[in-house]
Amino acid sequence: MPIRVAVIGTGAISRGQHLPSLAALGDRVEVVAVADVNASAAEAAASEFGIPAWHTDLAELLAAEKPDLVTLATPPIAHKDAAIAALEAGAWVLSEKPPTLSLADYDEIAAHEGENGPFASYVFQHRFGSAAERLRALIADGSLGRPLVAQCDTLWYRTPDYFAVPWRGKWATEGGGPTMGHGIHQMDTLLSLLGEWTDVTAIMSTLARDTETEDVSFAVVRFASGALCSISNSLLSPRETSRVRVDFERATVEVEHLYGYDNSHWTWTPAPGVDAETAASWAPAEDVSSSTHVPQFTHVVDCMERGERPRASGDDGRRVMELAAGMYKSALTGRSVARGELVPGDDFYASMAGPDAARATALIHAGTIRSTREEAADA
């Protein structure tokens, strides 16, 4: 029996990625319905993709169609309530990024998962390309030696008109700026490679766009392995690029692309003394692109059939949310932040903006974040 799927949201990401990726899975899935608050958009998507039903209300869809899997292609503010409703109805969830607006929201969703499913997972497709998969295997078996130095860059360009969409660039509806909505893809890829992080120091500013949140952020992150990494996220960079580079003891491995890569976007540079035959053995055997959602959608369906938790869910999906929260806390308090601080009761557990969104906006716009120690000295 095919897995019954419902797609929530019928905008660009749904039509460009979710629905085509589900179609690529063939008879393993059956898209039984779509939903959108805009009735004409829902009806048009159902007609275009040959889907038998459309709805404007999620509760109505869940009751009528009883899907096994719900994919969320909606603005971030809608993720939490939709994910919880789907899990409570017994459906697994695959949601667009960012997963939620806060760590508190992420944990609230997780509380509605079952011990053996249903589970909620999140779209971080760049970790599923063949080169990233191969690199993880090489890291795990020690072939490249210890990771030492890394760089993670999301340098994109968004015009002022981009922020005319009402939910963009607002704490209450998007959760944050490029740290949350754009750089989170490369940051997740980085974390999927290097594992647990321990502390972060960050700065942020709003330099050129009319937005409540930052349009640029920078950070230095320390990993449990001892590796150090710089992270830059920008929406002001005309020559757009996405890049992750890791210097290991025995090689530098780097990927540079924009919105998706194949093997040709990766370079593998052996350190002096590594023989050519060994270096050649590092190359991935397959060439699976990360430019579509198909590999991750396939992984989720595989996990559903086996009754296993998917990657990019649970603690594995939460780690990048913790890093984003740590970056905002560091930038807005003017000090380094340890990962262990980001727990229930901490202001930045509840909101990326901390206790006062208006103050967060004022600080980021001013570009002169002062440490809490300096503020106390002046009080």
From TrEMBL:
Q: Where is the Gfo/Idh/MocA-like oxidoreductase N-terminal domain?
A: 3-117
Molecular functions (GO terms): nucleotide binding
- Say which species the protein is native to: Microbacterium oryzae
Q: Which Gene3D superfamilies does UniProt cross-reference here? A: Dihydrodipicolinate Reductase, domain 2 (3.30.360.10), NAD(P)-binding Rossmann-like Domain (3.40.50.720)
Q: Where are the transmembrane segments?
A: none
* Pfam family name, one: GFO_IDH_MocA
Which controlled-vocabulary keywords does the entry list? NAD
SUPFAM superfamilies attached here? Glyceraldehyde-3-phosphate dehydrogenase-like, C-terminal domain, NAD(P)-binding Rossmann-fold domains
The identity of this protein, by name, is Gfo/Idh/MocA family oxidoreductase
